[in-house]
Write a structure and sequence with these properties.
419 residues; Cytochrome Bc1 Complex, Chain A, domain 1; five-stranded mixed beta sheet; 11 strands; 46% helix; 18% strand
Amino acid sequence: MFEKTTLANGIRVVTERMPELHSVSVGFWVEAGSRHEDIALGGISHFLEHMLFKGTETRSARDIAKEIDSIGGVLNAFTDREFCCFFAKVLGDKLPKAIDILSDLLLHSVFDPDEIEKERKVILQELHMIEDSPDDLIHDMLCESIWKDHPLGHSVIGRVPTVNRIGRNDLLQLLDEQYRGCRLMVCAAGDVDHQDLLRRVEKAFSSISAGNSAPISSAPQHNAAVQIVEKNLEQVHLCLAYPGVPQNHPQRFTMNLINTILGASMSSRLFQMVREERGLAYSIYSYLNSHSDTGSLVIYGGTAPEDVPQLLNVTQEQLSNLKQVRLDDTELERAKGQLKGGLLLSLESSDNRMSRLAKGEIFLGRQYAIDEIVNEIHRVTPEMIQEMANRLFVSGTCNLQMIGRVDPAAFDSAALCLS
């Protein structure tokens, strides 16, 4: 069901037809994110994403909103560390209109100086909102700390000084240099005809040159550290990170299963041991933060200051158990069932399928059929889980971030994490 065509100027058009759906999700993906920025202009990719919705030569920002609403569609965008995506979800027969709007944003935005200043204020408010939300802020702190001095560690939104420094010419230069054919993908899933989409994209973007592919910086080193930010909060918010694997790693399915077992659901070990058995936290979970050439496994928890040592100790016990004790076959099968079920349920959505197409191209260079993925999950054994746990959860590799009123007793537990 996958089709892919590369145009003469390097634009990749990738589709997955889902004839049972009435909707189609289409995304214009640009391999230009915060990783590719000049540190002095941190946040410029995110700023540019905002500005492309503020008016074109023929549409005002209000016109754009009214036009997509009038066809019952959804229009949005997001910026990440390695890409930026502009997407729409509409009924299949409205796809031509969605393509017209999206291409207009990318090709004909005007960057009105007054709109730039208004949007700068909006982005600064977004920054302040994160700073006022410790459960959000701590994840940015973590990335900055584990990938110290590397572009992957930079905040996607930027910082107040860099956002204030970005000017109209900077935005236009970024658009001219990075929004080129070899960095652009158009991915669509749902009620879509590949050849029809291909013709429309080719017509809309015929004037765009191939340009240069995204520069590849060296993979960052994982930095072990403890950082504590004192704030007068009711809870201490904390994140622990251990080295993970890149998106294309041969053992990525083993890594996904470790995350599932450890903290990805209500039946996970951390949720059961930290919340259900001890009542130490309302929120406790783990996730994978993976990129093209590196990754990390992150554990987040929020707890009372006096309970930080116990939460850290319980977490360390669970990591040690994965290293020292062979995983029970029943628990592994349950984790595999959860991972497969989540994957298959997500594929009922055209927007998730569209994102999967793009990330397959960006990180893997190809599309994987569902059967291939399920077979790879099935191949993971308890021995593979234990071997990877011993390779990743190594003494001296943990990075621990804490925000709140940290009890001095937590320092001993923090030292244990790093020992």
